[in-house]
Amino acid sequence: MPVLSPTWTDERIELLKQHFEAGLSCREIAADIGVSRNAVIGKLSRLNLTRGRSTDERKHDRSFARAPKAVPRLQYEMLATLYGETGAPVMGPIDDANRCSLLDLAENRCRWPISTPGAEDFCFCGNTAPDGQSYCAGHSRLAYRPNSRARVMRG
After folding, report:
1. How far lies 11's CA from each of 24, 30, 50, 121, in Å?
2. What value does the mean pLDDT take over residues 56-60?
3. What does the pLDDT read at residue 63?
4. d(Cα 132, Cα 142) in Å, to the nearest integer?
């Protein structure tokens, strides 16, 4: 059986650190050292080497995190604008009185996820869904696009 040499020798690690400090990209470092880009990313992570982000990037991240959660009506209006349905009727807010957990979902209940999976407030819409449908009427309008866009793409 052949003897395998370690991927990260002391020399490679030193080169990695030098190239990182010089500002080379992970792809450039990988090409020079002779390892994959993912190997470089993993080793940088294990060495706790990170690049400082600019203040503009940090400000953008903070402002995005503080943005209020979108209301379904606003989501529908945005989708209608994107797909050229400016004359489409705008639905009102979707009733949130029937929200339920995964264990409470039944065959005729809306499976539209609310919030982020794993979050403390994660749940499902739970409104009545028509027979054989996954979503209530309001969430179906958000989930399924009308055929108007498909006609444009074929034409």
Report:
1. 17, 14, 20, 49
2. 56
3. 52
4. 17
The two tokens of residue 137 are: 């009427």
Distance CA 150, CA 62 (A): 37
- Per the CB < 8 A criterion, the answer to whether 30 and 12 are in contact is no
Residue 53 to residues 20, 25, 37, 61, Cα–Cα distance (Å) = 14, 14, 20, 11
Residue with tokens 């009733």, as numbered in its chain: 95
Amino acid at 70: A
Q: How does the average pLDDT of the chain come out, rounded?
A: 76
Q: Answer yes or no: is pLDDT of 90 > 50.
A: no
Bridge partners (DSSP) listed for residue 113:
124
Query: How far apart (Å, rounded) are the C-alpha atoms in residues 68 and 71?
Result: 9
Q: Which residues contact 35 (CB under 8 A, 6 or more apart)?
A: 7, 12
